[in-house]
Design brief:
This protein is of the alpha/beta class. The protein contains 18 helices and 7 strands. It folds into 2 domains: 2-115, Up-down Bundle (Transcription Elongation Factor S-II, Chain A), CATH 1.20.930; 125-423, Uncharacterised protein PF01937, DUF89, domain 3 (Rossmann fold, 3-Layer(aba) Sandwich), CATH 3.40.50.10880. It has a 7-stranded mixed beta sheet with strand order 1-7-6-5-2-3-4.
């Protein structure tokens, strides 16, 4: 399965890159922290080399030994996996659910640094994320320019035109999800050209397209909306870089078109899956745009900083997004987060990992309804914007998956297909 290929090939590659990154920053650690920095770097590298060896030789998954706030939850989850294995011995790298061991690897990478001050705040993936942003400059400029031109006469757009623009920006945000560094094991995955040019041609590759449902949900929320209650949209972010910019543009459009009054962004509290957005990435991206020497890029950055200051946009992270649990256990494991999401009118889940956690990462029949796969997770109406990079997909029409499979065996994992898949949470 694709899971086997990931554990066998991709994850060791990612660990090797992390070790290499630490090694390359040795002098910087020395300049900043003296011998202590170099010692910490050596310890972190030895911790990660051990981890890589455990992974490649299918050793049992070991409890976390750090004192970080989520360690107890991880260790409880390991016990849960032990009980699942029906006495087949310890859960190990090749004998455990893919979602669990993949998340576990990123948590161990975090521990390697967190346990080794003074380099404990170093994000081993930061360079790759920054590089992806800079290499996607042309696409970022094209998108910011398009959007700023659109804003000039957004007040004059009729309902049909607004709907068309929403669909366009949803698609840009969907295909922005192709820019994923954990998928390419850190190889270049930047967005080189303007995605707006090719949207028409990409429509046949959207296997489930529920954009109409999103439109009617937002329009009806607006109509029902009294003075007292704001229409709130939450975006559960995926990758930094070009994808994040496409999400920010979508969020700005929702507010500027008055389809929403506020947008809440949810990022990761620790570096995750190579290119996932952390608070630092979120703020850094807005700063980069602000200081860009391109008029429309800097206009976007300035406006977005303003949205955050005014509280129209809110950024938050929560430990739950970097736990191994799928979302059906959120109400139990993170009741505070679940209660917060219940206040939203619409949850937009970006990307493949969120899709895997929404559907429990199971090998479903393609035709199983999305609602069923969510396994009672329904804090609010939700939609997944996701390009397919793992072999889990539900909610297809009978024969649809088999038909694509016949001509394209890699269709579920190559990022070429996408879904805009909605559940009304009724």
């Amino acid at each position: 399965s694709f899971a086997y290929f990931t554990i066998k090939d991709r994850l060791p590659q990612i660990l090797t890159r992390v070790i290499d990154t630490l090694h390359r920053h040795k002098n910087e650690f020395f300049e900043e922290h003296g011998e202590k920095g170099v010692e910490a770097e050596k310890r972190a590298i030895s911790f990660l080399s051990k981890l890589r060896n455990e992974l490649q030789t299918d050793k049992p998954v070991t409890p976390l030994e750090d004192e970080l706030p989520d360690a107890a939850l991880w260790n409880e989850y390991l016990d849960y996996q032990r009980n699942l294995s029906n006495g087949n011995g310890e859960p190990s790298w090749f004998q455990s659910p893919w979602l669990y061991v993949e998340c576990y690897m990123y948590r161990r990478i975090h521990a390697a640094l967190a346990q080794n001050p003074p380099i404990d705040n170093f994000d081993v993936f930061k360079e790759g994320k920054a590089q992806n942003f800079f290499e996607s400059q042309e696409a970022v400029i094209a998108l910011c320019t398009y959007f700023q031109e659109l804003l000039k006469n957004i007040k004059d757009l009729d309902e049909k035109q607004l709907q068309e623009e929403l669909f366009k920006l949803l698609q840009v945000s969907l295909w922005g999800n192709k820019c994923d560094l954990s998928f390419s094991a850190g190889e270049d995955s930047s967005q080189k050209s303007s995605p707006l040019q090719s949207l028409e041609n990409m429509i046949p590759y959207i296997l489930v397209n529920d954009t109409e449902k999103l439109w009617s949900l937002l329009v009806n929320a607006k109509k029902r909306n009294t003075e007292k209650s704001n229409v709130r949209v939450d975006i559960i972010l995926d990758n930094a870089g070009f994808e994040l910019v496409s999400d920010l543009v979508l969020a700005d459009f929702l507010v500027s078109s008055k389809l929403a009054d506020e947008v809440h962004f949810h990022g990761k509290s620790i570096p995750w899956y190579v290119s996932d957005t952390t608070k630092h990435d979120f703020n850094w991206t807005i700063k980069q745009l602000q200081s860009a020497n391109h008029m429309w890029m800097s206009r976007c950055g300035i406006n977005w900083e303003g949205n955050l200051k005014k509280g129209v946009w809110v950024y938050r992270d929560h430990m739950f997004w970097t736990l191994p649990h799928d979302f059906s256990s959120m109400a139990e494991v993170a009741p505070d987060l679940y209660a917060d999401l219940q206040k939203s009118n619409l949850l937009l889940f970006k990307g493949d990992l969120n899709y895997r956690k929404l559907t429990g990462d199971r090998k479903w029949e393609y035709t199983v309804p999305f609602h069923q796969a969510l396994n009672k997770f329904c804090p609010a109406p939700l939609c997944s914007l996701r390009t397919l990079k793992s072999d889990t997909q539900v909610g297809l029409k009978p024969g649809q998956g088999e038909q694509i499979q016949a001509s394209e065996p890699e269709w579920m994992v190559n990022g070429k297909y996408g879904v805009v898949q909605f559940d009304a949470a009724l």
